[in-house]
Amino acid sequence: MQLPTQKSVQQDEAPQKIEKMKHVVRRIKFESELDLDFGERVAEKAYGQKLLSCIQCGTCSATCPLAHYMDYTPRKIIAMTREGFKEEVLNSLTIWLCASCYSCYVQCPRQIHITDVMYALKREAIQLGFHPKRLPIPILAQEFYKRVLKDGRNTESWLLISLYLRTNPFKMLKESILGLKLFLRGRLTIGKEHVKRRDQIHAILEHKKGGQPL
Ligand code: SF4
Ligand code: SF4
Q: Where in the sequence of the chain do the CATH 1.10.1060.10 domains occur?
């Protein structure tokens, strides 16, 4: 039996190496690729310039109960926001996993409103369409807003139906038995609830939104 020479082994591996290299993602960015005003814009929406005074001590990440599940820790999110890594920040799961518990803000030595930064980033991600398309959290926020804008109230059954239709229609079939039980016990209603002066609610919410899409 003829043993493969070192040269023939290298030739066999070459196509695999080229294929692997196609999937290599450059993780650093040139300054020209950054959105250098991003940090300032987010800071304006989250209690001003304090965001820019972060000393990167990491206390926020150490106190965050959900940091282990996040793709970027709160400290990294603050640093990346400040430096203009807009796409990475707005595509991250971190902003959607934040449970708004405020422990990072309480512990931060610079009193940076990290929770409000997360809220500002969530709004920006929804407005610019950056969030993962089938991630339930931003879709739930959008559908809840639409229901309140239209009827002045939220009807839970319709909220769930629209959420499942946009995220996972098969799950709606799976949950239908539970939905039926809740309906029979009077915990879910089919009829849509609404307030009398819907036009006033509509005007208030549109004014607060300032013409931005949600
Ligand atoms: S605790 Fe405050 S100062 Fe420290 S890294 Fe977090 S945001 Fe920055
Ligand atoms: S508010 Fe969000 S980021 Fe801050 S500690 Fe709580 S979960 Fe973590």
A: 31-127
